[in-house]
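PROTEIN SPECIFICATION:
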Amino acid sequence: MVTIIAAIAKNNALGKDNQLIWHLPADLKRFKNVTLGHHVIMGRKTFESLNKPLPNRTTIIITRDTNYTAKGCIVTNSLTDALNAAKSDKDPFILGGAEIYKQALEIADVLDLTLVHHEFDADVFFPEIDMSIWKEISRQDFEADDKNKYDYSFVKYNRF
């Protein structure tokens, strides 16, 4: 089972200048809890925005650069190779960026999304989701509070 995990704004915004646009501590906490102990697959730019492997997870980086190395990480050159490197994990997570999400949407079994109920100025966007092939299986809605500036929802979809 392959899971795409992402935080997406109303206008499908993901980030700007290789950074997250918003700060939602509840989302970060949930992300950590959900991905701990798993393989996490991401593109090089996403990895470089983090600047280090995520603790207690196996970090797999996808890059076209065949000479790229990152201490403590597995480096691959395609999504297929990344998934092969994660084959010991029954539930690897795809963390982005936009191009990796676009490729992974073709093969993912689950979408685990944080929907941020706000539009943002961005330069990177999540690809359009064909909702005719996804079924919502769970949703938790939250209002903004003193720690989380925007209304948001945790929504999980399974492929039909």
